[in-house]
Design a protein that fits this description.
Elements (H helix, E strand, L loop, with lengths): L16 E9 L5 H13 L4 E6 L4 H12 L4 E4 L3 H7 L3 E11 H15 L3 E7 L5 H6 L2 E4 L7 H13 L13 E3 L8 E3 L4
Parallel strand pairs: 1-2, 1-5, 2-3, 4-5, 4-6
Antiparallel strand pairs: 7-8
């Protein structure tokens, strides 16, 4: 028997409004990676993804996931990332292999957030070589480790540490389906009446 979803309000206990900027998305080469950046952004507590570079159907794929799994996640494409970064009203964090150590960077970000009561954070992840000026625009250039790995991994670690795990089991409004945690088997709940 199918049933209508319970009237659950999306948890808004998270202290931050996070936007993720994907710099330099390239056709074909970055399609899958940029899609995963969007999926991680949405699932790990960000409220927006902004893609720059080539414009393809990556945005549509992420919007389709949001329609099915719920939430108020916004996705858009911008040509001019520089204007967006400079106009952003909050802290700009650039995730890069060449930044300061992750733990000390996170401590500084938390201190600034607490001191200024700033809730807006822009997290920047690159695709192609990141222009030097991004390092200057950023309030923090943070390295999630000092070995080569994926920008998707860096984003997931950063968001999880920022939200301290609170985002992992957030309920998303207007979801058409939901996975119920289970130690064995798959439990998928259909939230739409047929």
């Amino acid at each position: 028997m199918k049933h209508a979803p319970a009237k659950r309000k999306e948890q808004n206990k998270l202290r931050f409004n996070v936007a993720v900027l994907r710099l330099g998305h390239r056709l074909v080469r970055d399609e899958r990676m940029s899609t995963h950046i969007g999926l991680v952004s949405r699932a790990f507590g960000a409220r927006q993804l902004v893609l720059t570079g080539a414009d393809d159907h990556t945005i549509d794929s992420i919007k389709k996931v949001s329609r099915r799994w719920g939430g108020d996640f916004d996705v858009k494409y911008l040509k001019n990332w520089r204007e967006f970064v400079l106009a952003f009203g909050g802290i700009v964090v650039h995730l890069t292999m060449y930044g300061e150590k992750f733990n000390s960077g996170m401590a500084k970000i938390r201190a600034e957030v607490d001191h200024k009561a700033c809730r807006n954070i822009l997290v920047v992840v690159g695709a192609e070589k990141v222009p030097r000026e991004m390092y200057e625009f950023a309030d923090y250039n943070v390295s999630v480790g000092n070995q080569p790995h994926s920008e998707v991994a860096a984003l997931a670690v950063f968001l999880d540490r920022l939200f301290m795990g609170e985002e992992l089991y957030d309920h998303f409004v207007r979801a058409k389906m939901r996975i119920e945690p289970s130690s064995k088997g798959k439990k998928v709940e259909n939230l739409v009446e047929n």
